[in-house]
Amino acid sequence: MKRTLLFVMAALMMVPALAKGKKEARTSGNPILPEFHADPDVLFSHQTGKFYIYSTTDGAPGWGGYYFTVFSSKDLTNWQHEGVMLDLGTEQVKWANGNAWAPCIEEKRQADGSYKYYFYYSGHDVKRDRKSIGVAVADSPTGPFTDLGRPIVDKTPKGVRGGQQIDVDVFTDPVSGKSYLYWGNGYMAGAELNDDMTSIKEETVTVLTPKGGTLQDYAFREAAYVFYRNGKYYFMWSVDDTGSPNYHVAYGTSDSPLGPISVAKDPVVLIQNPGEEIYGPAHNSVLQVPGRDEWYIVYHRINKHYLYPEPKGPGYHRQVCIDKMEFNADGTIKRVTPTQAGVAPLKGKIK
Q1: Residue 17, pLDDT score
Q2: Which residues fall within 8 angstroms of residue 68, CB to CB, at 6 or more apart?
């Protein structure tokens, strides 16, 4: 009898928790990926009808991760681990041996109707003993990927001093159909890609670094991201150090994929919310749901237990999150409030 009574009491105590769990399941919750991941790039694949996130595998001292994973989702709320898709610690990538950072990916439909996926990333270049940018290609968003075997960006642009060749972004202009690559830490550079998508047109390399700003608003640090909406090219970037709670996203616009960039009057898109224990939300990508004027920002934030000045590795214990992103009538981006709730499941059929 005593055992039965205890069981009933335990069951009753669980009811609010179950109800709460059911309520929380209506949104993705943030973070959306397990463990530590950073620098997320989000893709919708027309081939599979799914969303994918590629990221830096985080949590290793000194940003020492050496492989990339991919997660998939049908609704932006439930994410499935699809495995390791590129490993710099094996024969799969021979030119780099670690510091697998900040990837991006582009889906390209071929003349025969098939698809190819071009995955760009930075790693530690063994031959040059510095960070460089490489590319790997696959027929599926989850691989297997075949690396080019050498970097495609291995030096700073002419006239630039310092910085690193990291934090790559790829963008295909819906107006011209041309594809572009962007990169840089300490500077922002861009260049048109050749038709093979595995090399850049050296003569088009352009330094795009926004001038001025402070750590409170738009002083450029890294993580360029480009998208197009209603005749404007939007450039986003991260401000401050990746380990700082103040790490945040700023933006500007241009009439061209290679600038010049006009910094927005209110340039901050996403910044910390200490009241909700959200710190360092930045290094983002942006998702437009195909066929809709519906937008999401995917970014990382610092795990609250690994903040400065604690000696626990601030800057490489980050987690991937997602929130809605909206625009004002004049095309300016509304400031995003980072949340713990995340987003609701995507509704309706995607075109």
Answers
A1: 35
A2: 54, 55, 56, 57, 84, 85, 86, 87, 100, 103, 119, 121
Give the pLDDT means over successive 10-residue stretches in the chain (351 positions): 35 35 69 98 98 96 94 97 95 96 98 97 96 98 97 96 96 98 98 98 98 98 98 98 96 98 98 97 98 97 86 83 98 98 93 74
pLDDT the model gives residue 172: 98
**Closest by CA position to 297, among listed 261, 338, 330:** 338
Distance (Å, whole) CA 159 – CA 81: 42
CB 296 within 8 A of CB 76: yes
Buried-state track 10-34, b at ≥16 Cβ within 10 A, e below 16: eeeeeeeeeeeeeeeeebbbbbbbe
Q: What is the pLDDT of residue 4?
A: 36
Token pair in block for residue 336: 């995003």
- Ordered alpha helix ranges (H), 2-133: 2-24
Which residue reads 């040059």 in tokens?
Answer: 128
- Give alpha helix (H) positions in the chain: 2-24
CA–CA distance from 245 to each of 220, 240, 287 (Å)? Answer: 16, 9, 24
Strand partners, 54: 41, 70
Cβ–Cβ < 8 Å for 222, 241: no
Q: What is the per-residue pLDDT for 313? A: 66
- Measured between alpha carbons, how far is 129 from 154 in angstroms, rounded to an integer? 10
pLDDT at position 9 is 34
Share of the chain residues as helix, strand and coil, in percent rounded to the nearest 5:
10, 40, 50
* Amino acid letter, residue 24: E
